[in-house]
Amino acid sequence: MRSYEDRTQNVTEAVPKSAYVSIDRPSPEHRTYGGVKQQLKGKLQAAEMAMSSILKADDIKKALDAFKAADTFDHKKFFEMVGLKAKSADDVKKAFLVLDADNSGFIEEEELKFVLKGFAADGRDLTDKETKAFLQAADKDGDGKIGVDEFAALVHE
Question: Is 100 annotated as a binding residue?
Fold first, then answer.
């Protein structure tokens, strides 16, 4: 009779490593700064192109330049400068979908750090202070994330 090790060795060799990948992936509630940053990195070029179809590239550049320094971000001024405030509800929803890096239907605190990168790849990360202030301003129902309606209300404030 074959030993347990002999019998299981064939099984583990037959199962590709990719079968175990989902076990190693963190669940949404265990996302990390690096994980969200990596997700967003993959979307940056597409996000920039999508934003450019909604907003003028020159307006985006001017707004990003205006808030280049840490702790200077003001969402009201930013949305006005990029021209999002004057856009239709449909365009604001499109912008929201671009900024929702994990396609969860919400912009969570981890994603807010990278909100400027959603407008252009060379946008800076928001500081923790800016991120928390942005979340506090938008999260009207207190669930710790921003839904599309909350985002639209914030943009049109």
Answer: yes
